[in-house]
From TrEMBL:
Compartments where found: Membrane
GO biological process, one term: cytochrome complex assembly
Gene Ontology molecular function, alphabetical: heme binding
Protein name: Cytochrome c assembly protein domain-containing protein
The entry's keywords: Cytochrome c-type biogenesis, Membrane, Transmembrane, Transmembrane helix
Membrane-crossing segments per the record: 6-25, 32-54, 66-82, 89-108, 128-151, 163-186, 201-216, 228-245
GO cellular component: plasma membrane
Bilayer topology annotation: Multi-pass membrane protein
InterPro entries in UniProt: Cyt_c_assembly, Cyt_c_biogenesis_CcsA/CcmC
Length: 262
């Protein structure tokens, strides 16, 4: 089973990402980009091998979606680093990606080729992949908000808020695109675009919470602390939408998204 080789790919990737984080702190940008990029290539190669082996996109179980999240975190980190030269962002992305990798190592999922009819839609893979990218970008945004609230020294936060805003705007754009793809998928699979399924309800709540941040920043741009708390709350709601919903009684036997637990 290809899953038994995950530890090899994961270990090599994490070591390369950690090397990239170290290189960033040492101002060795070329090495930081090279090692982080190589680590991403190795990790993505495993995802592709798993895709070929399972004969389906590795996106059905929570463990499989964690693979994509582990991949997109360092990708988001290196994008932020290349644009704004924040050294610590690669360290954070490596640490968080390692946490998700370890969760998959200690709690392996059962991966089979079986794919229920609803998941055989061409919208399935892009919907989940786009959402995972959104989650990674919004994860980076909430880290920036925590940094500004509790660790930032000095009153000049212009650069940091620019980064936080851009991460949130792009992340929300990906989330919106993912929701639209999900609606098209739902129409094809179940005959309707939206049904206020528990998962869909929390997705709408999460989307609206980030929209609150966007509007607040437009009209109260100088008062940043409430906006940063909105980001933290929104990210907590995002976690409920992603995996917390699976443990709510209202979703058991009712939600069409409970296939994530299988």
């Amino acid at each position: 089973m290809i899953w038994s080789y995950f530890i090899i790919f994961a270990l090599v990737s994490v070591v390369l990402w950690a090397t990239g984080a170290w290189a960033a702190w040492r101002n060795r940008r070329a090495l930081a980009f090279a090692t982080t990029g190589f680590g991403l290539a190795i990790f993505f190669a495993y995802i592709l091998i798993m895709w070929i082996t399972l004969e389906r996109p590795p996106l059905r179980t929570m463990g499989e979606t964690r693979l994509w999240y582990s991949f997109f975190l360092p990708l988001a980190g290196v994008i932020v680093y290349s644009r704004w030269q924040y050294k610590w962002i690669l360290s954070f992305s490596t640490l968080l990606a390692t946490v998700f990798v370890c969760v998959n190592l200690f709690k392996p999922e059962i991966h089979s080729k079986t794919l229920m009819p609803a998941l055989q839609s061409p919208w399935f893979a892009p919907h989940v992949i786009v959402y995972m990218m959104a989650y990674a970008l919004l994860g980076a945004a909430v880290v920036m908000s925590v940094y500004l609230l509790f660790f930032k020294k000095g009153n000049d936060t212009t650069k940091e808020m620019e980064i936080t805003d851009n991460l949130t705007y792009v992340g929300l754009s990906f989330m919106t695109l993912g929701m639209l793809m999900g609606a098209l998928w739902a129409k094809e699979a179940w005959g309707h675009y939206w049904s206020w399924d528990p998962k869909e309800t929390w997705a709408a709540i999460t989307w609206l919470s980030y929209l609150v941040y966007v509007h607040y920043r437009q009209y109260r741009s100088r008062d940043i602390r409430p906006a940063l708390w909105v980001l933290i709350i929104a990210f907590c709601l995002l976690q409920m939408c992603w995996w917390g919903i699976n443990y709510l009684p209202s979703a058991q036997g009712v939600s069409v998204h409970t296939y994530n637990l299988s």
